[in-house]
Write a structure and sequence with these properties.
Blueprint lengths: L2 H29 L28 H12 L3 H13 L5 H17 L3 H14 L4 H17 L3 H15 L4 H13 L3 H14 L5 H13 L3 H14 L4 H13 L3 H13 L5 H12 L5 H13 L7 H13 L3 H11 L7 H12 L3 H14 L4 H14 L3 H11 L6 H11 L3
Length: 424
């Protein structure tokens, strides 16, 4: 899953939680239309002047039926009744706003996002709801636009909400940050997420995740690592943070710090297979760290965190070989063979055996490599030729080099050898 997809999944949870909270507020408001007006003011600094609500007596019965149908989840009935009320000559701004608001909710429940957005926009345009209902509806529009991948439109709606309410709403700011991220506007996304976190008494963990991803995507490794370090200091055993910070260090060319973070986690038994792979790869990419790579791989295998397979044993064999432990390298490459799907492991083993002058075994595994299939079969025939030389089989040497001459990777070298040794 790439970063954008992951963040879209993260934000969908935010969107749905905010949407249903807004929907619940709207429905509570609608149930109270016939009672006293809502006393709690959610947007005290809003620039919009609340309209004076004067329900039409002629449509009171129809509006009550509409609200009842909404409360009973009779969505088709809500849509038909709502359209009748909105089209009525007796309807004022209030009736039209309520009708379109509940039509929008019904259409959203039927997964008709374009229809829901259109209806809710009409509810806002009718300008008949109090500020609580008006801005809850605007919030719902932004969320639906997000779910419909209308990112640009959603940002416009969010900005309108923030500007008119004059409220640093953390969830709307987080939504804006996610929208900007989806549009590759990474510095702006980071700024929005910082505002969301600063304005919230309990910032969500995934908001920090989006902020970190925005920093990384903008190649702002300084801010990304600073954030990762501060978060890890608070949650030192959070494996996801450990991996993220190690990755950020690596991308910022700070491999030593990446190794330190992962090695600390290994010592505390926190690494999974991914962590071990990341750690031994860092060791192998650092000159003179083969012994540490070997220790990490063997530790992972002993703990059964690393699964025995061709890759792990091949990497282990490579680490042993370059640290001058040919016997252990041969053992590791031999263990890779049962897991191998091609002849690459067998060819690596054949090369090492040849260097150790174990020519009969070298020839055997080079032949096995050809049988299983390798990307450069000419190399395998060269190894066989060397093995035949070590075994004193002149006819076998010539036959191997003639085969090697058939492949582009070894054609020139094989032909030169054959030409030079033709008369011998």
């Amino acid at each position: 899953m790439n970063a954008k997809t992951l963040i879209k999944v993260v934000l969908l949870g935010l969107v749905l939680s905010v949407f249903f909270a807004g929907t619940a507020d709207a429905e509570r408001n609608n149930r109270r239309r016939t009672a006293e007006p809502e006393k709690v003011v959610n947007f005290p600094n809003a620039t919009r002047a609340e309209p004076e609500i004067k329900p039409s007596r002629r449509l009171q019965r129809e509006v009550n039926k509409l609200i009842e149908a909404n409360n009973e989840d009779k969505f088709d009935e809500v849509i038909s009744l709502g359209e009748e009320i909105a089209a009525s000559k007796a309807a004022g701004n209030y009736e039209r706003a309520v009708a379109y608001q509940l039509i929008g909710i019904a259409k959203q429940q039927k997964d008709d996002f374009p229809g829901a957005i259109e209806a809710l926009q009409k509810a806002v345009d009718a300008n008949g709801l109090d500020n609580n209902g008006h801005y809850s509806t605007l919030l719902q529009i932004a969320n639906l636009q997000y779910q419909a991948d209308q990112f640009e439109q959603a940002i416009v709606t969010v900005d309108r909400f923030l500007t008119e309410t004059k409220k640093e709403d953390p969830q709307m700011l987080a939504l804006k940050g996610g929208l900007l991220y989806q549009l590759d506007r990474f510095p702006e996304a980071a700024e929005a997420m910082k505002r969301a976190i600063a304005s919230s008494t309990e910032p969500k963990d995934n908001w920090y995740q989006i902020l970190m991803s925005a920093y990384m995507s903008a190649e702002n490794y300084t801010e990304a690592t600073a954030l990762g370090e501060s978060l890890l200091a608070k949650k030192p055993d959070d494996v996801r943070l450990i991996y993220n910070l190690a990755t950020m260090y690596t991308q910022g060319d700070q491999n030593d710090k990446a190794v330190a973070v992962l090695e600390s986690a290994r010592q505390r038994g926190l690494l999974d297979e991914r962590g071990y792979r990341q750690l031994y790869a860092l060791y192998l990419n650092t000159e003179g760290k083969e012994a540490q790579a070997i220790a990490a791989i063997n530790d992972g295998l002993d703990k059964q965190v690393l699964k025995p397979n061709a890759e792990v044993y091949t990497v282990l064999g490579q680490a042993y070989y370059f640290s001058d432990h040919p016997k252990e390298a041969i053992d590791a490459y031999t263990k890779a063979l049962p897991f191998a799907t091609n002849g690459d492991s067998a060819l690596n083993l054949a090369r090492i055996l040849s260097n150790e002058e174990r020519y009969a075994e070298s020839k055997k595994y080079a032949q096995e490599a050809i049988t299983k299939g390798v990307s450069r079969p000419g190399d395998a025939w060269i190894v066989i030729g060397r093995a035949e030389f070590g075994l004193g089989n002149k006819a076998g040497i010539a036959a191997a080099y003639r085969e090697a001459a058939k492949y582009p990777e070894t054609k020139q070298a094989a032909e030169e050898w054959l030409k030079k040794n033709a008369s011998r």
